[in-house]
Amino acid sequence: MDKIKLAILFGGKSSEYTVSLHSAAAIIKNVPKEQFDVTLIGITEDGKWLHYEGDADKVYNDTWHKEKLSPVLLSMDSQFKGLIKLNEDKNTYEKIDIDCIFPVLHGRNGEDGTIQGLCQMTGISYVGCDMTSSAVSMDKEFTHVICEMAGIKTAPYIAAVNSNKLNVKKLYDEALEKLSLPMFIKPANNGSSLGISKIRNYDEFEKGIMEAFEYDNKVVIETMIEGFEIGCAVIGNDELIIGEVDEIDTKNDFFDYVEKYSQHNSKIYCPARISDELKQEAKEIAEKVYKALGCKGMSRIDMFVTLDNKIILNEINTIPGLTDLSRYPSMLKKIGMEYKDLIVKLVELAIDK
Predict the structure, then answer these.
(1) Where are the domains of the chain?
(2) Contact, 109 vs 13, CB < 8 A?
(3) Which fold has domain 157-223?
(4) Which residues pair with 230 in a beta bridge?
(5) CATH number of 4-126
(6) How far apart are CA 177 and CA 170, in angstroms?
(7) At the N or C end, where does the chain have fewer CB atoms within 10 A?
(8) What is the DSSP letter of 35?
(9) DSSP strand pairing (125-126 vs 100-104)
(10) Which tens digits make up the pLDDT trace of 188-202?
(11) Contact assessment for residue 331 and residue 243, using Cβ atoms and an 8 Å cutoff
């Protein structure tokens, strides 16, 4: 049987560039070489696509791009599905056939529908959600709108777009009336908790708005949910596999960027320390969210458990962290899916879409 020609995209023009490198390094080390013929494509922080043939450690350490690498681009020719690699002489090129693309790109330009739309135009199969599902899942306001219409409970919120006409004091008064304090300000389109602030007064609100606008032109302001956070891994297209439910225990105001990748003041429990009935409810909500947003391939659904044991949706991640120790693969490992099997399954789902 011929090997599947798999292109792994890593890096990316995103604030989550480093996170992508760590996820990709784990996949590169664990991808079964007997089943896949792997081509590595690194995307630099300024958006250059480069063909990389080195080892995973240099990807992890962000030294991969320090070698002399050839530029590549995706072919849009319907007669050829693959990559075009430009040779050193700049006048000749090489074609690289590709059966499937695995975009290991977190955040903007990787998880927001942009790369998915590009892949769809090539006609090459790709891992994960399609362009539309990725876009609406990345945008926290659109996630609220769609999930609330589907009968899924979310935190009370308002959204605001950055413009010269924006009156921050008026926005604060509106948020205070509808949401009360404390509240959270989040960039509408970003991940890894970057740009998120907990708000207790107007000064923090003004600072938080400015910080969030550094990451996106739109913000979502949500009331704070008293309780703790849980998550659930979902994998599949039509027939879904639901992973174990995990729980985040943090001493910080929230599970911020530093805590996600250091866990100095936090701990992940998998399975979550909740009743079997609550776990089952969380799995059912995760499946409902996945279907409402039109997801395919994979997603991690994050939720809150309130003090009176109600479950409220927080957000969805269509390309969750994918190191072998990340939450998503860990939740699936608890139900018997090993990391290498996860990689194979995701590619199979991509080709079957």
Answers:
(1) 4-126, 137-153+226-352, 157-223
(2) yes
(3) Dna Ligase; domain 1 (3.30.1490)
(4) 247, 303
(5) 3.40.50.20
(6) 11
(7) N
(8) T
(9) parallel
(10) 998 667 889 999 999
(11) yes
What residues form DSSP beta bridges with 40?
8, 52
**Do residues 313 and 288 make contact, with C-beta atoms less than 8 angstroms apart?**
no
DSSP secondary structure of 54-81: S-HHHHHTT-GGGS--EEEEE---TT--
For residue 23, which of 234, 298, 275, 352 has the smallest C-alpha distance?
298
> Number of C-alpha atoms within 13 angstroms, CB side, residue 202?
9
pLDDT tens-digit map of 102-123? 999 999 999 999 999 999 999 9
Residue 200 in 3-state DSSP?
A: coil
Can you read off the two tokens belonging to residue 328? 């998503």
With a CB cutoff of 8 Å and minimum separation 6, the contacts of 48 are: 71
**What string of DSSP letters covers 131-165?**
HHHHHHHHSHHHHHHHHHHTT--B--EEEEE--TT
pLDDT digits (tens, 9 = 90+) for 338-353: 999 999 999 999 999 8
Tokens at 334, concatenated: 């608890």
Give one DSSP letter per residue of 80-137, joined into a string: --EEEEEPTTSS-EEEEE-SEEEEE--STTTSSSHHHHHHHHHT-EESS--HHHHHHH
Q: What is the pTM of this model?
A: 0.93
pLDDT at position 89 is: 77
Q: Are 202 and 165 in contact (CB under 8 A)?
A: no
> Which of the four CATH numbers 3.10.25.10, 3.30.470.20, 3.40.50.11270, 3.30.2350.10 does domain 137-153+226-352 have?
3.30.470.20
Residue 259 — pLDDT band, cuts 50, 70, 90?
very low
Tokens of 270: 């998998």
Residue 264's pLDDT band, with cuts at 50, 70 and 90, is: low
